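haha ok so turns out i had the wrong file open the whole time. this is the CORRECT one, sorry everyone. sequence first:
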Amino acid sequence: MLLEKIEGLLKEVSNLSAQKAEDVEQLRLKYLSKKGEINALMADFRQVPKDQKKEIGMKINELKQLAMEKINSLREEVAEEAVSSDDMDLTRTPYPIALGTRHPLTIVRNQIIDIFSRMGFTLFQGPEVDDDKHVFTMLNFAADHPARDMQDTFFIEQSDPGDVTKNVLLRSHTSGDEAHFMENHQPPFRILCPGRVYRNEAISARAHCFFHQVEGLYVDKGVSFTDLKQVLLTFAREMFGPDTKIRLRPSYFPFTEPSAEMDISCNICGGKGCGFCKHTGWVEILGCGMVDPHDLEACGIDSSVYTGYAFGMGVERITNLKYRVDDLRMFSENDKRFLEEFKSAY
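then structure:
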């Protein structure tokens, strides 16, 4: 009778034992494989009368569950016995797992993102491999602007200088991310665009062929330069301390008008003057300005209705100010001694 056979297997499985992993595997094959004894019960189960199927089906499931639990338990017991105290050298010097740390650029980048996120900015990241249209043309760069030269920008493909959509390049600034966003969204919006950029420059302590930027953009009705100044002052005091002062100097950027460069009071000497700030008491940290109407129109936004501001900063520059790293090359050399200095940072 099938029920008696199941009861017998239940007792048999309950008393299973094994000495090594190979024995456990043999038991698994005997009871739980496709050709095992439990699976063979299903052939007999088909002949069981309907009024008994429920009872016997539950017994088969109970047997299968017991077999799985018993074999898993035996497997764990065998594994524990394999690693006994006799196999361990208790005199061996322990090797603690060294804690890692975030890269200083990542630490500062996350701080910048956190500050602007609390002011309502959302993240947007565009492509690192872009085209002339988004990096230059839509941002009001003249056709003969020096930035379009091979000596300043890494062009991957420049088959037709007249067709800006075919000129593929490594982006030289994250401002192109703003062009990507604006052509697909209508105001109001407030975005922050962090990312890596590339320029064809000789590598030295003060310059590198790649570095990191964070761009900010806010477009809405009635946005003014006063709004921009207040946001930048809040950022400077959150990043460098509540006593930080700022000043804005007139400048020029193709994609903003009016444009300015922003300095902060030197956080190293407190504005008194030192070698880092060239004894002026001020250190430049970013460029900014009101979005040029040309840029808005190029992206399908009505410049007679909307205005906006934009700003951009180098993450390496901010990191230098916070941690006084004089050589840009140290950020990309993966020297563990340098990186371990930032274990206490977050």
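The beta strands are 122-123, 129-131, 155-157, 168-170, 189-198, 210-220, 246-253, 256-265, 282-291, 307-314.
again sry for the mixup
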